[in-house]
Design brief:
Strand order of the largest sheet of chain A: 7-8-6-9-12-13
Order of helices and strands of chain A: EHEHEHEHEEHEHHEHEEEHEHE
CATH class of the largest domain in chain A: Alpha Beta
Number of strands of chain A: 13
Oligomer: homodimer
Radius of gyration of chain A: 20 Å
Distance between the termini of chain A: 30 Å
Number of domains of chain A: 2
CATH architecture of the largest domain in chain A: 3-Layer(aba) Sandwich
CATH topology of the largest domain in chain A: Rossmann fold
Chain lengths: ~325, ~325
């Protein structure tokens, strides 16, 4: 993947903040390459970027039109087509994080060919994958894990990367999901690879490195999520983390979309993840806890973080409210 | 899948018994539809079936040419091409359990079209998959799990199915691997689905059923195999087994192909599997142990099985030596 910055972020015709979380992640973590946003008039959402027409974005130097959108089937909506086609015509490449491929839609493929533009589908890895082997690799690795999906593993990973860069560490963020890939410009969408290759794909994105180098590997799913625990297991084995950071959303009580399943306690989740991770790195340790305080706010969040630091004897941070500075002493 | 019997089994140019284990499984469990075998002169292996040329097999009524072969990349070897092309020309359909698709090889696709023959790639599921939901389904389920890959989970499953049919149970074998699919004629190769759908695919192949019906679900991999534990985890969650049967190969000390990884003790493996399975069925129990005594022989095997029955207080059987009769009292 080598799509060109800067970006124009397309918010589509969406009405749910969750639907544009990919674009929000990009605007949050790579603001310097996000030149503006554009939405259909039916969409009231904004990322707070400059609102630009495609013409205005091109005039300002935009290179890529980003479909940072999510919906349940991962479908490229017919309503987005006029925007995508105009972007291609006006000279932008198109980057999609959806499951369906841009190149499978004849009008889009034809326009890309006609105007000499490129199409990028970040969920689909085109290279050759291999089966994991569990061999110990050089360099250090941190993996974010969680009590559920969508609790803030990517935000935690990027907050840690940001703080480590500030402190002068040799560090790389390793993306395993579509938003992360857009932010990093590389990686593999782990939940989209063939099941046999989960751990092997993670081994590929965090290869041997110098002794003091850190990979910050973005986690996915949760061992206690009955839909996605297979992905989380393969990630733990492939990452062979030296340390894990447990991510949790304060106040979440049931598994996302599955109200009959309770979110595990932090202690259960930590123990289960250390247990599974120990197969490929028997020395794995808990380095910290990332608490997403979105729903409880800063004041209650600070108190809860203090309580968790006491209970688990590791730093606890919120990627947005506090950043990951407190974690640094524990690496 | 609806490929036609009877079959001619192709053993290729292989020199390792492991490479032809798919064909061996088919010959073992569905001998009535295996009309004969054919191998390249470079291959010394045999399944003990009648050795037939393609012409002779066709004359005897064969309908399908079975590539029951496995190699590390799942590649359709160039050396097999003359046989495949001759089979198509002489009027046989071709069924492959390899990862690479028959239809992706231009000569094979062209010959199939020219001679009006069908190509079946059992590893590739063409239908729509969905994400698992963990919802409790009606009916009963038994899942075979293991201390490693290739310890005999499919053999154990089929031995259990055979015994349950004999005892009058309402029972179905549910295949999750390519050999199982060839034997059952239905199922989904779980290790070949996209990672997001592992548990969902298992839910699909063992749907709601009558209260007394049993699904015998074929397990894959092992929670302690760093290459494939993601698949095994999703299988445990999707199967929501009422009981598991732990499968082990006597004498195996290291994980297949990964000599740095030790095979877990039976106790470790049982505890880990019950722990993971309890997420979607908190009442899951160990019903028995299937000990593959291939390398230690019958006499030592019988002693070892007696010892394990004592230690774990469940029936222990070898699918080939004893069959699964002793397990029946524990269902």
């Amino acid at each position: 993947m080598d799509f060109k910055a800067p970006y124009l972020l397309f918010l589509g015709c969406e009405d749910s903040p969750l639907a544009i979380k990919m674009s929000r992640g990009l605007a949050q973590w790579r603001p310097e390459v996000c030149i503006g946003e554009i939405a259909d008039p039916s969409c009231d959402l904004t990322l707070g970027l400059k609102q630009l027409s495609i013409d205005a974005a091109v005039a300002s130097g935009a290179q890529s039109f980003i479909l940072g959108l999510a919906n349940s089937g991962g479908i490229i909506s017919q309503d987005w087509l006029p925007y995508i086609l105009e972007a291609l015509e006006k000279g932008l490449d198109v980057v999609s994080g959806l499951h369906n491929k841009l190149s499978d839609i004849p009008e889009i493929q034809a326009a890309a060919e006609k105007f000499g533009r490129k199409l990028y589908d970040v969920r689909h890895f085109d290279g050759e994958l291999r089966v994991g082997n569990g061999r110990k690799r050089s360099g250090k690795r941190l993996l974010t894990v969680g009590t559920d999906c969508s609790v803030g593993k990517m935000y935690a990973s990027l907050a840690i990367e940001k703080e480590m860069i500030k402190k002068g560490y040799d560090v790389d963020f390793r993306a395993t999901g579509q938003t992360g890939l857009m932010v990093a410009g590389s990686g593999i969408c782990i939940d989209a690879v063939v099941a046999d290759f989960i751990s092997g794909a993670v081994e590929m994105i965090s290869p041997d490195n110098t002794k003091s180098h850190w990979d910050i590997i973005e986690g996915q799913g949760s061992l206690q999520n009955p839909s996605f625990a297979g992905v989380s297991t393969g990630l733990l084995h492939g990452a062979q983390p030296d340390v894990i950071v447990m991510c949790h959303e304060a106040g979440r009580e049931t598994i996302k979309g599955l109200p009959d399943f309770k979110v595990p306690s932090l202690r259960q989740a930590i123990e289960a993840n250390l247990q599974v991770a120990s197969l490929t790195n028997p020395k794995v340790k808990l380095a910290g806890i990332a608490l997403n305080c979105r729903t409880i706010g800063k004041e209650k969040g600070m108190a809860e973080m203090a309580r968790l630091e006491q209970e688990f004897s590791v730093p606890c941070f919120d990627p947005i409210i506090t950043g990951a500075a407190s974690l640094m002493d524990n690496l």
